[in-house]
Fold:
Amino acid sequence: MRHASVSESLSGLESLARIWRRRRLFATVFLGTIVLTIVALLVLPVRYLATASVIVAEQEPGVANASPAWAQKIGDPADLESQLLVIRSPRLMRIVMNAPGVLDAVTLECERSRMFGSGDACQRLRTDSTAFIEHVDSHLSVTSAGRSRVINISYQSAIPEVAKTLANALTTAFLEDQRTEGANSREVATTWLWQELRQLDDQLRQADDKIQKFRRTKGLMRGANAPITSERLSSIGQQLSAAEAARAEAAARLQEIKSQQARGLTDAPSVLSSRSIADLKQQLTTVSSQLASATSVLGPRHPSIMALTREQGLIQQRLADEMQNIAASAQKAYDANDNLVASLKKQMETAKAEAGSATLDEASIESMVRDTEIKRQQYSELYKKASELETERRVLQGSTRLVSLAELPNKPFFPKKLPFLAAGSTLALIFAVAAALLAERLGPAPAGAEQPAPSRAARPIDEAKTEAVRVKDEAPPPAAPVAMPVERSSLLSAMTGAPIIARLPRLREPQAASAVSSILQSHLKLPIPDVLRLAVSDDDFQWMLHNLKLGLRLGSAEGAQRIVVTSPGAGEGKTVTTLALAEHLAAFGCRVLAVECDVLNPNFEGALGIEGGVGLLGVLAGSMTARDAVVRTAVPNLDVLVAGGAGARAANMLFGKRLVDLLGNVGSYDVILIDSPMPLNAGSYLAGIDHTIVCLKGDSSLMGRAAPAIAEVRALGAGSVVIAVTMEENPRSNAYQPAFIPTEEYARAG
Structure:
């Protein structure tokens, strides 16, 4: 962590030093940009902005309950977007074009803004709607206010009155269009409803006339409580019952009289009920008593007895005649009731037939009445809806409400002095820094420019030793200035005790045409497959790899040479160096095996486009031997042993072993290149390895990182240690050229 902060500090100081060396160019670009900003502030035309606001999707007045469509519309962002499109639509623009004073305002604005040419183009705005729409749309801005349903309608113009006029005209036209559209839809619906109501009214009238005509035709008049046929049938039934009862009574009376008459008795109830019979029987009783009394005194031939006898016979004759009359009267009463019963029965049959026919007719009428009632209910509902729509149409104001009309703008909207100057100052600083860095990158350093010295914090040895080494290795200054002094290489080797075997240049894609794109592209990190592709076509990179091969005498010794490529941290280029060196050696005919021991961040499979299977993790687990885990690649003479996955447990198992023992039986190879990070714990991880290449990124923090990294490698048992400086910006400008040092010499230096 401490080394990273030191590196960042040194990188920042180096950038400042580059800008300081180009301070004249920096000041020129900065002041030039500021002057251009001030000139633009004075030259650019002043524009005023007038803004009017409306709010959409509100409930209409006069509507008691909001429909679900309204409830959904209020929270629907798509509805707000549709309103924004409506405001900018050509149809609404043409409506605004016909508003009073709009054409005069737009023509005045056009003539005021034209500095050259005639005013024919401005006059054409009065007749050409397309030109008018294009002109207004270029100055119009319609936006929503945050997450609300408020829409701001703004218009920019060099004339404040024109900005206010156009903003208000467009707002008024939009509100009127919304109200008109809503009223038209309701008017269409109301017209259709009134037409349907008239048709229903005619149908109801025809249905009522048809029912009444049917009643008259069928005689289906109603009585007090029911139809006449039903009441008549009931009445005849009652009369028939009464007539049958009277007939039965007359028959019983006649039978009784006849039976009594046959026996000659006069004590029948129907006879006794007669007043005449009663009087005659009383007279007969009186005469019989007188006759009995006179017989006891007078003889049968006495005139009194004979008179009483004749009177008694007359009374008895009259009694018999009276009984005969009563019997005849009973017979007549029976006959009359019998005839009445027969007549009523005939009337009953006729009434039943009429009632049955009337029932069918009544069913037909009920069906007609039911249909009429349904139409009458439909008429009532349609009439109510038509009345509501008519009311809404008369009070409708549209779903859009006016929040505020545009006021006359007093302050210019563009350009605003403070924000404009602040933006100009920022751009001036950016352009000045970019110009200084680009000049430092592309051109030589200016005469007399000071070279930055390494920071004291980045020196891991004491000051006296550093000065001694510097004096010892000091060489005459070069004739032309270079990006890095010659002493840096000698000092780095003296500090670490490890020679620099190669300086590998940074690989980049072909730069873009612009200078800014070139600076930005230099900071982009390329994927490993792209870097390997560029390494093959880069002559400087291949030359450095060739020097590294010759310096370590790779492929010339008997038996397999085991080379570990490591680095103190990520991003130092160890994986690219391993794979690029492996492909380089394979191209020269060496049989090479590349082993991936970085089980925490494996990259071989993605870089080479292969599927490595279980790989090194399988070897550590004991499921297979190292020879069986080796995979061939598309590159001739190059095999790989990939990590086979990522895991902290596997890393602990790997770092606890010796690489020589782990890779003791991998087959017959000339060179075995091992890509491995530095373990955190000390041990004999690198013991027995022929050479260890420590990759260090060639930046300003190289001096501070080199000594701790070499010490850590030697603590892991490494014997022969060399340094490969990676990602150098200008390796050709460096006075150092790697010599072909015998292996035993830099082994003794360690």
About this structure: The first helix runs from residue 2 to 21.
